[in-house]
């Protein structure tokens, strides 16, 4: 009898539906149900169904108009799948859709289940997580909390991270992993891979070893997706995600002694290739921010494409130095020390030394004509690259560190773009995400203070850029994409 009764369930379709102690409106409310709650039907009295709520272990009565009676027999599976297909893309009905996904998986014979129901389940769980993250403390948050509880009752697990003072909810991706393991269309597999590899859902507390393993796994998941017959929009999204991940891997490989410079070059080159593969004419309007995000990530690590000078800098026999240049050496554990040297000063007696735990892209070093200043790219984080300007002053050599933006390190890079005559000014380009907005700026800096004297959103709007921009910078930067 119990098995037979479980073949017919009631799925709650309205929030704040009342589970009452008796089949009448005046009876005390025992529980406020949310859409997607699943109840066992045990009988009917008038306009009420007699039900049992297994999640709360409570029996009662609910109005028949507030639920949908649904059979879980195998022949009901096609109907359940049709409803699931409708709810998959219906915003606000995620918990209801998740309940129908669970009902379908209970009703369908095992041999007929493919990746489609898990694709729908994953899409609804992702959308529910986004809604909950965006509406913290706003009207409707209580209803969202109820929907999250319903989803959790079906085994949908959410992960939470603190970012920028807010809680970021992310689906743990179990349904997406099942899509990749079961027969599925190329589009379904691509969507699953994109959901599993989101940048914002990488746990911020991972240590460098765990983060490196996670990023390698993300790159592998994306590379297993067959792209040939995908829609252009999906192809672009895959290229953008790969570009961001491979840029991060270039940075991480550069930090690890076991990786040869050639592997760093390979990762940085792959990042540039993936960004270049994006067809901007097919780029969806909603993907504009994703494109900027990927470009900044690639821009931060782009110097990894150039041959490393590390072997020359740390070798036992240094090459003779004619003019101002950079040499690197190992400092304390994890540190790289930058030595400014010339024909009369070597690493043992440098003009100036500064150590950092970031990645020093020695190939980026460029010197002004007078030999009194040198610009260098230093990357302390995988998405944040600074410009260090070493220069000779009245009291000797010093260094100014120019960040991409004045806020906390998040997403951005600033780079040398050219020396101007007279050694009093230099050109720089920067891109950064500030307060959720992307900003690109081409600037004239006063070298003595690194203050911005002039700036524009396009280099053509600054006459100084037209005359003095460095040809190497122009040929390599992603800021002119």
Q: Termini distance? A: 68 Å
Total domain modules: 4
* Form type: elongated
The parts where pLDDT drops under 50 for at least 5 residues are 1-5, 310-318
- Rg over CA atoms: 29 Å
The number of strands is 20
| SS strand fraction | 25-35%
Q: Give a short account of the largest sheet.
A: 8 strands, mixed
What is the count of DSSP helices, taking H or I runs of 4+ residues? 14
Helix content: 25-40%
Could you explain the architecture of this structure?
This protein has 481 residues and is of the alpha+beta class. It has four domains: 70 residues, SH3 type barrels (Roll), CATH 2.30.30.40; 99 residues, no CATH class; 102 residues, no CATH class; 163 residues, no CATH class. The chain is built from 14 helices and 20 strands. Strands 13, 14, 15, 16, 17, 18, 19 and 20 form an eight-stranded mixed β-sheet that branches. The protein has a five-stranded antiparallel β-sheet with strand order 6-5-4-1-7, covered by helices on one side. It has a three-stranded antiparallel β-sheet with strand order 10-11-12. Helix 4 runs antiparallel to helix 5 and helix 9 runs parallel beside helix 11. The longest helix has 24 residues. The termini are far apart.
């Amino acid at each position: 009898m119990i098995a037979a009764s479980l073949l017919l369930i009631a799925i709650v379709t309205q929030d704040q539906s009342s589970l009452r102690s008796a089949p009448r409106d005046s009876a005390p409310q025992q529980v406020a149900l949310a859409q997607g709650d699943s109840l066992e039907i045990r009988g009917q009295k008038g306009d009420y169904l007699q039900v049992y709520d297994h999640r709360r272990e409570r029996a009662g009565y609910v109005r028949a108009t507030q639920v949908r009676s649904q059979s879980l027999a195998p022949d009901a599976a096609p109907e359940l799948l049709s409803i699931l297909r409708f709810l998959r893309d219906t915003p606000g009905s995620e918990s209801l859709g998740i309940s129908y996904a669970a009902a379908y998986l209970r009703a369908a014979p095992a041999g007929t289940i493919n990746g489609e129901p898990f694709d729908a389940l994953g899409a609804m769980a992702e959308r529910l997580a986004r809604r909950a993250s965006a509406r913290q403390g706003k009207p409707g948050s209580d209803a969202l909390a109820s929907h999250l509880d319903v989803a959790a009752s079906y085994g949908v697990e959410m992960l939470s991270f603190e970012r920028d003072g807010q809680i970021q909810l992310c689906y743990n991706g179990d349904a997406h992993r099942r899509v990749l393991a079961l027969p599925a269309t190329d589009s379904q597999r691509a969507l699953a891979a994109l959901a599993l590899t989101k940048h914002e859902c990488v746990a911020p507390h991972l240590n460098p070893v765990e983060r490196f393993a996670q990023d390698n796994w993300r790159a592998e998941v994306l590379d297993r997706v067959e792209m040939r017959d995908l829609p252009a929009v999906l192809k672009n999204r895959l290229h953008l995600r790969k570009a961001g991940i491979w840029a991060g891997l270039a940075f991480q490989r550069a930090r690890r002694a076991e990786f040869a410079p050639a592997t760093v070059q390979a990762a940085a080159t792959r990042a540039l290739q993936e960004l270049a593969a994006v067809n901007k004419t097919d780029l969806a309007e909603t993907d504009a921010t994703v494109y900027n995000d990927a470009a900044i990530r690639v821009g931060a690590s782009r110097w990894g494409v150039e041959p490393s000078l590390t072997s020359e800098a740390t070798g036992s026999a240094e090459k003779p130095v004619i003019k101002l240049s950079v040499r690197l050496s190992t400092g304390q554990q994890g540190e790289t020390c930058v030595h400014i040297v010339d024909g009369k000063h070597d690493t043992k007696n440098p003009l100036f030394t500064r150590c950092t735990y970031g990645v020093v892209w020695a190939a980026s070093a460029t010197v002004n004509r007078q030999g009194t200043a040198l610009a260098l790219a230093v990357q302390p984080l995988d998405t944040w690259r600074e410009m260090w300007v070493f220069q000779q002053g009245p009291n000797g050599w010093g260094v100014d560190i120019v960040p991409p933006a004045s806020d906390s390190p998040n997403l951005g890079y600033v780079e040398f773009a050219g020396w101007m005559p007279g050694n009093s000014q230099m050109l720089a380009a920067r891109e950064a995400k500030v307060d959720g907005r992307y900003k690109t700026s081409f600037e004239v800096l006063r070298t003595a203070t690194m203050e911005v004297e002039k700036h524009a959103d396009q280099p053509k709007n600054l006459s100084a850029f037209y005359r003095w921009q460095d040809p190497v910078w122009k040929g390599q930067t992603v800021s002119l994409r």
